[in-house]
Amino acid sequence: MTLLAIIIILFVGGILAWLAEKHLYEGGRLISLVSLIIASLLLISYFPQAESTAVTGDSQWWDNLLISWIPRFGISFHLAIDGLSFLMLMLTMGMGIFGLVMTWNDITFRRGFFYFNYLWTLAGIVGVFTAIDLFLFFFFWEVMLIPMLLLIAVWGYEGRVYAAIKFFIFTQASSLLMLIAIVALAFIHYRNSGQLTFNYMDLLGAQLSATAAYWLMLGFFIAFIVKLPALPFHTWLPDAHTQAPTAGSILLAAILLKTGAYGLLRFTLPLFPESSQAFAPVAMTIGAISVVYGASLAFAQKDMKRLVAYSSVSHMGFVLLGLYALNTIALQGAVMQMIAHGLSTAALFALVGALQHRLHTRDMSQLGGVWPLLPKLSAVALFFAIASLGLPGLGNFVAEFLVLVGSFKANHWLTVIAAIGLIGAALYALLMMQRVFFGKFNDKLKPATEGKTVSDLSLREISALLSLAVLLVIFGLRPQPIFDIAEPTIAKSMQKFQPPENEEVVIEKTGPETSASLSSPTAKSAKTGTSL
C-alpha cells in the first residue's frame, strides 16, 4: 500500500493546504512541505529493493497493488514500481521539494489554492509513473495536466491566459489521441482473445495486425512526443515556460516533460515492438532535428526563460534519439538524460526566477555586469550553465555521450547531426552568461538597483541549489548505480527487438556492476552474459 499512500498523502495534503490558508498565512506551504517530506520518506523505503536490483538484475516489480475498479470493462486500480519508476519518482519528489523551497516567498495571493494545485500536479505525476492499467494511466495523465493549467493561468505572467490555453489545446488533443489508441488496443485484444482488459501485462501479448499495430503505435507516439516535446509539436513549451510562475516552470522542465519519455519507454516500445522498430528511423530523425533546432532557437532568444525552454527542446531531442536507437547503451543514456536534464534545467529556471525577482527583468538586453552585484547567484548560474552544455565530469555529459555512442551504432549520419547540437549548447549557454553576468553594468538596471539593497541568494536558496549541483557531480563521476537500477526495465523493454544484423547487445553481470557491450551472434553461448 506504499504507492497508494504516497498518492493519497499528496492529494490530501493539497486539500489541507487549501483549507489551512484561511486560518494560517503560512499554513499552506508548511503543509505542502510536510506532505512532500512524508511522501519522500515512504518512497525511500524502496531503497533495499533498489540495492537488490543493482546486484541481482531482477526484473520483477518491486511492489504491486491491484484493486478491482470497474470490472465490467476490465479496468482495475493497478499500481506497480520497478527501477525506472523508482528513479522517476525520486526525481518527482526531489524536484517537488526543490520547487517549493526555491519559491518559498514568491506566492502572495490565493496561496492555499496554489499549493493545492502544486501538490495535485505531483500526485498525478506519481500516478503516471506507477499506473499499470492503461485506463488508470490515462486518468492520472489528465489529473496531472489540469492543476498545471491552473498554475499557469492564475499565477503566471502577463501572457498567462494565452499560454495556458495553448498548453490545454496541445495536451488535450494529444490526450484524446492516446485515449482512442488505448480503447482500440483493448477492443482488438478483446476481439481476438475474448478478454476485456486494460491491464498492461495482458496487453503486451495482444495479437495485432501490422497495420493496426502501426496506427496504434502512432497514437501513443504522438501523444508522448507532444509532452516530450519534439518537433513539430513543441510550440506550446516556450510560451508555457515563459508565462508560468517559477515553481510551475520547475515542474514542467524537471518532471512533466519526462512523462512523455517515460510513456515511450514503458508503453510504446514494448507494446508495439515491430512497428516501433520500423518507425525508428523517422523517430531518430525527429530527435536529431529537435536537438539542432532547439539549440538554434535558444541561441536567438533575448528572454532568459525562453532560452532555457528551447534548450529543453534540444536536450529532450537527445532522449528521443536514444530511445529509438533501440540498444541498451543509448537507452541508458536516455534515462540518465531524463534525470540530469531535470536537475540542471530546474536549477536554471529557479535562478532565472530569482534574478527576475531581484531585478524585475529577465530580458538579456536589459541585463549585464550582474556578477559584482550578485556574486553567489552568478557563480551558481555559471555551474548549471556549463552543466547544461555537457561539461565532462557532470551527469549531462555522461547522458549525452552514451546517447551518441548508442545512436552511432544505429544511424551514423543522424548521430553526427545531433552532435552539432553540443556545439549549439555551448554557444547559447556561454552567450547567456556573457550577456547577463559579465561585461559592463547595464544602465537600464539602475532604476531597479539605485538606493536599494539587492540581496544575493539566501542560505535556503543556496542549500537547495547546491544539493542539485552535488547530485550532478555524483552522477557524472559515479553513474553506475543509476544504470544498474534502470537496466532490468530496459532489458524487458528491449526483449522483443531484433538486434542489428550480425550484431547484438550483451549485458554482462559482474557482481554489482553491469556493463554493456557489443558482440557477434556467437555470444549467445557465452555463460557470463544474457543475450537480448
Average residue-wise pLDDT: 87
In N-to-C order, the SSE pattern is: HHHEEHHHHHHHHHHHHHHHHHEEE
Approximate shape: globular
Helix content: 55-70%
Strand content: 5-15%
Distance between the termini: 33 Å
How does this model look, in words?
The chain has helices at residues 2-20, 27-44, 47-56, 83-102, 111-130, 134-155, 160-193, 200-203, 210-227, 236-243, 246-271, 273-299, 304-323, 328-359, 375-388, 395-410, 412-437, 446-449, 459-477, 480-493; strands at residues 63-70, 75-81, 504-510, 513-519, 529-531. A 3-stranded antiparallel beta sheet has the order 4-3-5. The chain has 532 residues and is mainly α. 70% of the residues lie in helices and 6% in strands. Among the domains are: 281-484, no CATH class; 500-532, no CATH class. Residues 500-532 have low confidence and may be disordered. It has 20 helices and 5 strands. Helix 11 (246-271) packs antiparallel against helix 14 (328-359).
Briefly characterize the structure:
This protein is mainly alpha-helical and 532 residues long.
Q: Which descriptors would you attach to this protein?
A:
532 residues, mainly alpha, two-stranded antiparallel ribbon
Topology at a glance:
Blueprint: H1 2-20, H2 27-44, H3 47-56, E1 63-70, E2 75-81, H4 83-102, H5 111-130, H6 134-155, H7 160-193, H8 200-203, H9 210-227, H10 236-243, H11 246-271, H12 273-299, H13 304-323, H14 328-359, H15 375-388, H16 395-410, H17 412-437, H18 446-449, H19 459-477, H20 480-493, E3 504-510, E4 513-519, E5 529-531
Antiparallel strand pairs: 1-2, 3-4, 3-5
Helix pairs in contact: 1-2, 1-5, 2-4, 2-5, 3-20, 4-5, 4-11, 4-14, 5-6, 5-11, 6-7, 7-9, 7-10, 9-11, 10-13, 11-13, 11-14, 11-20, 12-13, 12-17, 13-14, 13-16, 13-17, 14-15, 14-16, 14-19, 14-20, 15-17, 15-19, 16-17, 16-19
